[in-house]
Design brief:
With about 120 residues, the chain is mostly beta strands. It has no helices and eight strands. It is flat, with a radius of gyration of 20 Å.
Length: about 120
């Protein structure tokens, strides 16, 4: 289990309101292709398609994997690895979120505006 430094505090500032996922529904199927519709809280919709494979022979049970979380553009997730390092995962390929650490208080600040 990861060691967590309890002296580090995370403070996040509230940003602009955005849209969240309201629902994800399988809305159609055509052969091996399933259509899913994602409805957002702002009323917009997006569709994506999943191509399924044909039934094959049953394989051996694989190892249990870990949970995967993918942040939405402009958002990020934080996690601690087995060595106790704090990692920030973000979806914006070239723009990592900026943080400042105040060692006198143990607070970690998410920077929302340029300096």
């Amino acid at each position: 289990m990861a060691k967590i430094d309890e002296r580090v505090k995370v403070m996040l500032l509230k940003g602009e309101a955005g849209a969240s996922i309201k629902s994800i529904d399988k809305t159609a199927s055509d052969g091996l292709i399933d259509t899913y519709t994602v409805k957002m809280t702002d009323g917009s919709e997006q569709r994506f398609y999943v191509t399924n494979g044909r039934d094959g022979e049953k394989g051996e049970k694989g190892d249990t994997g870990s949970t995967v979380s993918v942040p939405v553009s402009g958002l990020f997730n934080m996690g601690v690895d087995s060595d106790g390092n704090l990692w920030v995962y973000h979806s914006d390929s070239n723009v990592a979120p900026e943080f400042e650490y105040d060692s006198s208080t143990g607070n970690l600040y998410y920077v929302t505006e340029g300096r």
